[in-house]
Amino acid sequence: MSPLILLSLALQIACCVHVVRTGRPLYWVFILLVFSFIAVIVYFIAEILPDLRHNPSARRTVRNVRNRIDPDRDRRDAAKLLKAADTPENRRRLAEESLRSGDYAHASELYEQALKGLYATDPDLMLGLAKAQFGLGASQKARATLDALIAANPSFRSADGHLLYARTVEDTGDATAAIHEYEAVVQGYPGEEARARFGLLLRRAGEDGRARNVFQEILDRSDAAPRYYRREQQDWIELAKRELAALAR
């Protein structure tokens, strides 16, 4: 049988399964089976594509694929916008894209330029600056920026910001204070990175029993979590497994 026919059959069957599982009108099954490739294309455009546009996970997947193909696209677009109109929003966007791409020096420069006037204590900009400073290895500066953020915006809450603060405290050599920060951040952090880093810190501090409990908690939480969560947290789950194995030796 021709590979093209096999591909057509596979796509038709996949679309028919999608029809049944998602509760689409069953007339789609007839259309898909009769009209082959054309029906598959029409079904994708009419039924699947709209869902992808409104599904955060699907959008994230599409964005990740696009970034792998052209990782600097968003950054170039942001640079063009800033060149056309030097506004605080456009400067923030380019700073975020520079941060995402690992150009911490440029991101730091842009955030510092943006933190003026009405935006001098903007918490999102200050957090971005702290991330850029930490990326440059300037943990003390990042900690000072986060301290200033907290002082200027006492009601501001950010799980990523809290984790970053714990990491800056850890990097500046204050293990006792870092443990205290991690104890707080793991309570509400949406993922396993904070726990994994906390466990590593406890191991370095010689608290192997507590570290073992933290790593085991990662595995227990992931076992009870949906598959997509385990997939997203795979790196931290694998780290917990390796650390538990090392602790058992």
Structure description:
The chain is an all-alpha fold and 249 residues long. Among the domains are: 7-49, no CATH class; 84-137. 80% of the residues lie in helices and 0% in strands. It has helices spanning 3-22, 27-54, 56-69, 73-84, 88-100, 104-114, 123-135, 139-152, 159-171, 175-185, 193-204, 208-223, 227-232, 234-248. The longest helix has 28 residues, at 27-54. It starts with a helix and ends with a helix.
Q: Can you tag this structure with a few keywords?
A:
249 residues, 14 helices, mainly alpha, single chain, flat, 0% strand
Structural class: mainly alpha
Largest sheet, strands/sense/barrel: none
Q: Assembly type of the shown chains?
A: single chain
Distance between the termini: 55 Å
Shape by Cα distribution: flat
Short description:
It contains 14 helices and no strands. It is mainly α.
Question: Secondary-structure map with pairings?
Answer:
Layout: H1 3-22, H2 27-54, H3 56-69, H4 73-84, H5 88-100, H6 104-114, H7 123-135, H8 139-152, H9 159-171, H10 175-185, H11 193-204, H12 208-223, H13 227-232, H14 234-248
